[in-house]
TrEMBL record:
Coiled coil: none annotated. GO terms for molecular function: acyltransferase activity. The lineage of its organism: Eukaryota, Viridiplantae, Streptophyta, Embryophyta, Tracheophyta. This is Phospholipid/glycerol acyltransferase domain-containing protein. The chain crosses the membrane at residues 115-134, 205-227.
Length: 342
């Protein structure tokens, strides 16, 4: 360790008493006995150093004083260099951040601003088209609302096209457009809705009631027939499931995120059984869908950034059954089988 760095340590700066005796051009420096506590300047953790002493002998050579330090000084709990680097990286984000490094790039934040500008301008014009066609939709296609979903597909495609590409696999497994079904998928990002709308299927999403208050977007969701849900309200949950069953009986499809919320680390969470109870009681097929990549482009909790990347959508074969537990386990196993390979 260089002497300048050694002398700059808080341990040497904490010298309390120095006895200087100027005899025969020599002087001695003593550290107080006992244990000295100091705080590491990078890791911000306290460490104890053992008792130590420092002797210095001044040597005159051409009117210049040199300080020689005794090698008996030892400092325990030395940290490897890589530990310090990891600590500095960790300090830049919160614990559990699965997508930390991309966020540090300024261009990701710029793309995030551009993303919302594009989606806002697209929504304004397409919402007017949806509003004009709404009376006809109520008269001729009240439950499926195919026209509204076509407009939503155009809006989603225009929004995501400049920012990421979508690869579809298993499109042949999609039921016919006029066949009611229960679609289920993993949930990683705010971009999941945009990605799923590009499929062109007129399924009804379930959304929090507060989102319906958002200008343009919330109003368009109302015209689409999105099902409102009050979280932590058991009565609202029952009404939501009843409405889903009623829509399936009338020829419409519904879409569920069985995890209930977005995954922050990309891992598949526990599935709730509501979607599978609806499928079992209505004899509707369950269509599992795996979304790969949306969580890396826009991580949960970081909706202000858009990273570079691509998205893959895998549509699995429909599952039919009358046992909600079996449907739940089978659907989760099917979705997870693709996620573990990516």
């Amino acid at each position: 360790m260089p002497w300048k760095l050694l002398l700059s340590l808080p341990l040497l700066q904490s010298i309390v008493s120095i006895s200087v005796t100027k005899k025969r051009d020599s002087w001695r420096c003593l550290l107080p006995s006992g244990t000295t506590t100091y705080v590491h300047p990078i890791l911000r953790t306290s460490h104890n150093s053992p008792p130590c002493s420092l002797q210095a002998i001044s040597k005159k050579h051409e009117n210049v004083s040199w300080l020689s330090v005794s090698p008996k000084l030892h400092v325990q709990n030395k940290f490897p260099r890589d530990v310090v680097v990891r600590s500095e990286l960790t300090a830049a984000g919160s614990a559990g951040d699965g997508y930390l490094l991309p966020e540090l790039k300024l261009e990701s934040k710029v793309r995030g601003v551009c993303f919302y500008v594009v989606t806002a301008f697209s929504a304004i014009f397409l919402f007017m088209l949806m509003l004009v066609g709404h009376p006809s939709v109520l008269l001729f296609d009240r439950y499926r609302r195919m026209f509204h979903h076509f407009v939503a597909k155009v809006w989603a495609a225009l929004t995501v096209a400049p920012f990421y590409k979508i690869e579809f696999e298993g499109l042949e497994n999609l039921p016919p457009p006029d066949t009611p079904a229960v679609y289920v998928s993993n949930h990683q990002s705010f971009l999941d809705i945009y990605t799923l709308l590009t499929l062109g299927r007129s399924f009804k999403f379930i959304s929090k009631t507060g989102i319906f208050l958002f200008p343009i977007i919330g109003w368009a969701m109302f015209l689409l027939g999105v099902i409102p849900l009050k979280r932590m309200d058991s009565r609202s949950q029952l009404d939501c499931l009843k409405r889903c069953m009623d829509l399936i009986k009338k020829g419409a499809s519904v879409f569920f995120f069985p995890e209930g919320t977005r995954s922050k680390d990309g891992k598949l969470g526990t599935f709730k059984k509501g979607a599978f109870s609806v499928a079992a009681k209505t004899n509707a097929p369950v269509v599992p869908i795996s979304l790969i990549g949306t969580g890396q482009i826009m991580p949960a909790g970081k909706e202000g950034i858009v990273n570079l990347g691509s998205v893959k959508v895998v549509i699995h074969k429909p599952i039919v059954g009358k046992d909600p537990d079996m449907l739940c386990k089978e659907a989760r196993k099917t979705i997870a089988s693709v996620l573990t390979q990516s």
